[in-house]
Amino acid sequence: MNNVIDIVTDFRFCSLWTLFHTLLVNASIKGDTSMALGGASTIAKAMVNYIYYFFSCRHCANNFSNKVNALGFLPSTPQDSIMWLWQIHNMANMLLKGLAECQ
């Protein structure tokens, strides 16, 4: 994958969004120890770090980081965590509009 269009049209990118949504909803249902103690979502922190350190498309990783920074917070309640990712995903969809089938 050499550019944004390659990563966007790759099924793994769509699968990653699905995984992130699934993890956050599951943590919201089952509980997240960090949020229970008043801290930020463990899952959200893991997602941000995964994309920052391991995502092969640096352009995409920087855009994700910019979206997180634009929101100005990491979620600290179950409902906030679901809405937080939903907002970031929608921001990404707007940026990539027309480039991919799976958004």
Describe the model.
- The two termini are about 20 Å apart.
- The chain is mainly α and about 100 residues long.
- Helices cover about 75% and strands about 0% of the residues.
- The protein has a single domain (about 5-95), classed as Four Helix Bundle (Hemerythrin (Met), subunit A) (Up-down Bundle), CATH 1.20.120.
- The mean pLDDT is about 80.
- What does the radius of gyration come to? 14 Å
CATH architecture name: Up-down Bundle
What portion of the residues fall into strands of 2 or more residues?
A: under 5%
Number of helices: 6
Shape: globular
CATH topology: Four Helix Bundle (Hemerythrin (Met), subunit A)
What is the H/E order? HHHHHH
Task: Give the proportion of residues in helices.
Answer: over 70%
SSE topology:
Elements: H1 4-9, H2 11-30, H3 33-36, H4 42-54, H5 58-71, H6 78-96
Helix pairs in contact: 2-6, 5-6
In short:
The protein is an all-alpha fold. Helix content is 74%, strand content 0%.
Which descriptors apply to this entry?
6 helices, Four Helix Bundle (Hemerythrin (Met), subunit A), 103 residues
